[in-house]
Amino acid sequence: MFMEIRVTLNKLPLFPKKHNIKIIYDAAHAFGSTYKNRYVTEFGDVSMVSFHSTKIIHTIEGAALYTSGKTINERIKKIIIFWYG
């Protein structure tokens, strides 16, 4: 992980929480990475990792989303199935 990202992780939650903004965290290259004993996918309201063939852990194509709560998870499910859920 790059140093500028680590600095950002320390300060990441401050501004969005103050202004009720959700964080969508791109952790595409950070699968399994930790910072201060927490997985980096825990820092956003939604975090995404990639399983593209260019990544260390891959399935040729694909991705995974991690969410911080049931409400966000339900909204994402609706988006994934084009609001027909």
How would you describe this protein?
The protein is an alpha+beta fold and 85 residues long. It contains three helices and five strands. It has helices at 3-11, 14-18, 70-80, and strands at residues 24-26, 34-35, 38-39, 46-50, 63-67. The strands form two sheets. Strands 1-4-5 form a three-stranded mixed beta sheet. Strands 2-3 form a two-stranded antiparallel ribbon. A hairpin with a 2-residue loop joins strand 2 (34-35) and strand 3 (38-39). The longest helix has 11 residues, at 70-80. The model has no long low-confidence stretch (mean pLDDT 76).
Brief overview:
The protein has 85 residues and is α+β, with helices and mostly antiparallel strands. The chain is 29% helix and 20% strand.
Q: Secondary-structure map with pairings?
A:
Blueprint (H helix, E strand, L loop, with lengths): L2 H9 L2 H5 L5 E3 L7 E2 L2 E2 L6 E5 L12 E5 L2 H11 L5
Parallel strand pairs: 1-4
Antiparallel strand pairs: 2-3, 4-5
